[in-house]
């Protein structure tokens, strides 16, 4: 009886903790998203662009301006406008783009896969190259190799991405002709290739259209490598930091005392423990590339969300600008929360708290 009661008590405590964690997660999610909605809403209200004039033009009669302003709810108190804005967003109504005359959500669904593909390509490069560089820098601490890796990261942080993009475009396209013209796919394939997932490189490989795959690769390789370099700088620095922390732990001394090889200690034990916080770093780097590829997409005419927002901003199309900002912000929040959940799942110390 006592054992059964004790077991039931532990189960109730575990269930209560799970419910508490889920409730806390939902509160954080809702609060963060409401904050994002508030930021985008007030940005749309404080910038010196009248959405009514953007739709009707400067020469529209005053009666038409007043009518459209009332239809859009802009004559209501600011708190009522905010509530209407929240209701519209939650119902999937991001407004209509002045530039394309399409629903903003339709436009974003069309351009977001391009940004997703470019950011994924860059993150893969940053992860595949950045982690080994960080491990090497930690193992060779304070040597010439360590200084070189740190210098590579410093350059990635310091040089403006648009300047580096223009320089690489001039060199690798203008001079060497190693990459394709800016864009996502050659016009010769644009109307004959039918993508499945809208991720052109993956779709071309799945359909075994190798000429299309090579063309898409020649378009994505330069902007993807540039974003990968930015990701690499961050991931390598954090990998080095995590590895140095783990190398100072007692289990490393014990493993060496048992006669384990240095390679096995580094790759099978130290990196395995450092990989737990690295999950968060990679997820945040991925989110950063999703939201920070505006300049890269503009330079390379990459038809993603960044270029869509830039063109919309130049046309005073605030529905499109705020809709794109909201979608990218939502992706950043989702990846941030996902990384936190993965960290809690992979690290038993956080589950025990």
From TrEMBL:
Pfam families: BPD_transp_1, BPD_transp_1_N. Residues 112-339 form the ABC transmembrane type-1 domain. SUPFAM superfamilies: MetI-like. Signal peptide: none annotated. The chain crosses the membrane at residues 21-43, 118-139, 151-173, 216-235, 270-289, 320-343. GO terms for molecular function: dipeptide transmembrane transporter activity. It is a multi-pass membrane protein. Keywords: Cell membrane, Membrane, Transmembrane, Transmembrane helix, Transport. InterPro entries: BPD_transp_1_N (IPR045621), MetI-like (IPR000515), MetI-like_sf (IPR035906). GO terms for cellular component: plasma membrane. The keyword Transmembrane applies. Belongs to the binding-protein-dependent transport system permease family. This is Peptide ABC transporter permease. It comes from Xaviernesmea oryzae.
């Amino acid at each position: 009886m006592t054992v059964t009661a004790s077991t039931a008590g532990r189960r109730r405590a575990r269930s209560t903790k799970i419910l508490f964690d889920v409730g806390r997660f939902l509160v954080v999610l809702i609060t963060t998203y409401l904050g994002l909605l508030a930021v985008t809403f007030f940005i749309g209200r404080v910038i010196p662009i009248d959405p009514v004039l953007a739709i009707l033009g400067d020469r529209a009669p005053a009666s038409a301006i007043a009518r459209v302003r009332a239809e859009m709810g802009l004559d209501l108190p600011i708190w009522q406008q905010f509530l209407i804005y929240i209701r519209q967003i939650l119902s999937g109504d991001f407004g209509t783009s002045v530039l394309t005359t399409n629903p903003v959500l339709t436009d974003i669904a069309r351009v977001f896969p391009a940004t997703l593909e470019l950011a994924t390509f860059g993150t893969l490069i940053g992860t595949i190259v950045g982690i080994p560089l960080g491990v090497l820098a930690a193992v060779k601490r304070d040597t010439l190799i360590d200084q070189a890796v740190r210098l590579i990261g410093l350059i990635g942080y310091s040089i403006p991405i648009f300047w580096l993009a223009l320089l690489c475009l001039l060199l690798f396209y203008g001079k060497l002709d190693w990459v394709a013209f800016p864009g996502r796919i050659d016009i010769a394939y644009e109307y004959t290739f039918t993508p499945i997932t809208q991720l052109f490189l993956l779709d071309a490989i799945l359909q075994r259209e190798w000429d299309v795959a090579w063309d898409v690769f020649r378009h994505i390789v330069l902007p993807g490598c540039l974003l990968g370099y930015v990701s690499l700088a961050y991931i390598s620095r954090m990998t080095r930091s995590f590895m140095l922390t783990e190398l100072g732990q007692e289990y490393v001394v014990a493993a060496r005392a048992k006669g384990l090889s240095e390679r096995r200690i580094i790759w099978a034990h130290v990196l395995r423990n450092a990989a737990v916080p690295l999950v968060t770093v990679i997820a945040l780097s991925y989110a950063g590339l999703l939201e920070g590829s505006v300049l890269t997409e503009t330079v390379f005419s990459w038809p993603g969300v960044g270029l869509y927002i830039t063109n919309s901003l130049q046309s005073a199309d605030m529905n499109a600008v705020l809709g794109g900002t909201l979608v990218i912000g939502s992706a950043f929040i989702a990846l941030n929360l996902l990384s936190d959940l993965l960290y809690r799942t992979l690290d038993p110390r956080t589950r025990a708290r």
